[in-house]
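Supplementary Methods. Inverse-folding protocol.

Structures were first reduced to a C-alpha cell string of length 172. This string, shown here, constituted the complete conditioning input.
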C-alpha cells in the first residue's frame, strides 16, 4: 500500500502589539483557516494533513505545533491570543520555514502550504533579512511549497512581493 500524500501546513501567526487593533479579524481568519484545513483533510482521504505553527513577536518565538496531526490544532480566542511588542516577521518566517525544510530533507510525496497571518511589515528581525527570506521562498516554491500572505492594514501586495511573490489576500 502506498503512503498517503502528506500536506504540511505551516502557519506563521503574528502576535505583535499592532495586531491588537485587528485582533477579532485575525482570530476569525485563523479559525476559518483551521476549519478549512480540517475540512480538506476529510474531503481528500488520500491526503494526510500535518500542522506546524509558529506565533511570534519580538519577546517570543513560539513553536505551538510541529508536524502534528490536524486534530491537535484548535481555534484561538480572545483569551488565547495576546498581541504584544514588535514584529520580527522575517525571523519568524526564517525559523519556521528552515525548521520544516530540515525535517522534510530526504522525504518524498509531500507538499507544503505556508500561511502567514500578519498586519504589517517587518520591524524587529535580527537574523533574517528581506533578501534572505525572498531567496528561501523562491527556492522552495520550486519544490512544492506554496506561500500565502494574509494581511491587513498595510500594502499587502508590496509585502508579498518583498518575500518572494507569495500569493496574498487582504482581510478587511
Amino acid at each position: 500500500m502506498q503512503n498517503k500524500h502528506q500536506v504540511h501546513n505551516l502557519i506563521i501567526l503574528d502576535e505583535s502589539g499592532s495586531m491588537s487593533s485587528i485582533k477579532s479579524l485575525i482570530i476569525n481568519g485563523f479559525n476559518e483557516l483551521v476549519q478549512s484545513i480540517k475540512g480538506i483533510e476529510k474531503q481528500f482521504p488520500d491526503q494526510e494533513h500535518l500542522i506546524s505553527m509558529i506565533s511570534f513577536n519580538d519577546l517570543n518565538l513560539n513553536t505551538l505545533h510541529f508536524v502534528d496531526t490536524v486534530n491537535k490544532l484548535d481555534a484561538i480566542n480572545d483569551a488565547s491570543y495576546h498581541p504584544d511588542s514588535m514584529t520580527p516577521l522575517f525571523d519568524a518566517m526564517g525559523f519556521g520555514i528552515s525548521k520544516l525544510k530540515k525535517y522534510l530533507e530526504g522525504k518524498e510525496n509531500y507538499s507544503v502550504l505556508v500561511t502567514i497571518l500578519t498586519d504589517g511589515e517587518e520591524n524587529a528581525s535580527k537574523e533574517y533579512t528581506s533578501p534572505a527570506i525572498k531567496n528561501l521562498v523562491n527556492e522552495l516554491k520550486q519544490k512544492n511549497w506554496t506561500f500565502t500572505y494574509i494581511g491587513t492594514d498595510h500594502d499587502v501586495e508590496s509585502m508579498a512581493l518583498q518575500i518572494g511573490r507569495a500569493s496574498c489576500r487582504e482581510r478587511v
